Amino acid sequence: MKKCPYCAEEIQDEAIFCRYCRKDLIELQNNVVKEVNGGNKGVSKKTTCPHCGKEVKTEAIICKHCGQYTDPGRPIIQPVRTSGGN
């Protein structure tokens, strides 16, 4: 198991997509990414998302519930809209 570098939730080592925050992890394979928690094992502290108010881990960069940055100073992420195929 490893921690998602975006939301800090535990995911499978082989995961290419985070099931919690829905971020694509393939783009990270070619980049060096430090572990979100610095390698500390133990109980994660929790905080609330400034956008949706739900509980998230303090080391999370993105809320697994609403997909927004957990830092209130960061801009709001607009959802990607796809066409209906026509």
Helix content: under 10%
Q: Structural class of the secondary elements?
A: little secondary structure
Contiguous helical run count: 0
Shape: flat
Q: What does the main sheet amount to?
A: 2 strands, antiparallel
Low-confidence stretches: 30-40
Question: What's the total number of strands?
Answer: 4
What gyration radius follows from the Cα positions, in whole Å? 14 Å
Descriptive overview:
By secondary structure, the protein is mostly loops. Helix content is 0%, strand content 12%. The chain is built from no helices and four strands. It has strands at 2-3, 10-11, 46-48, 55-57. Strands 1-2 form a two-stranded antiparallel ribbon. A hairpin with a 6-residue loop joins strand 3 and strand 4. The chain is flat, with a radius of gyration of 14 Å. Mean pLDDT is 77; it is low at 30-40.
Brief description of this entry?
By secondary structure, the chain is largely without helices or strands. It has strands spanning 2-3, 10-11, 46-48, 55-57.
Tell me the layout of helices and strands.
Layout: E1 2-3, E2 10-11, E3 46-48, E4 55-57
Antiparallel strand pairs: 1-2, 3-4
Jot down its keywords.
two-stranded antiparallel ribbon, flat, single chain, 86 residues
